[in-house]
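Technical note accompanying the year-one report. For the benefit of new consortium partners, we illustrate the data format agreed upon in the data management plan: each record pairs a sequence with a structure-token string. No post-processing was applied to the example shown here.
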Amino acid sequence: VQLVESGGGSVQTGGSLRLTCAASGYAYCMGWFRLAPDKEREAVAFIVAEGTTTYVDSVKGRFTISRVNANNTLYLQMNNLQPDDPAKYYCAAGLGPSCRVVRGASGDWLFAFWGQGNEVTVSS
């Protein structure tokens, strides 16, 4: 599965952006990670084909993940962006049958497919 992201950019604090991830095929579990300078890659939000979602606490109430299964597209609507949100955001996908957001022995997140990443910057 190939993942192509779009929609990053720069906004002011409190602004909104929407990230899009177009997948070349079906993936049961899809989600977003982010990598900020001097930080580890962080799991942000995930959604399975049935629509169940999970979020990291820091984005709950501000970010919404969604997907359109008919065209294998994933979205991340980011509202009220804050100074802690700037990062390179990566789309990731797994074929299933479960959606386990875990790290392997090497410390890397265990997702089979990754997008190229899109920068999100927030200015005050």
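Partners are asked to follow this layout when depositing records. The longest strand covers residues 87-94.
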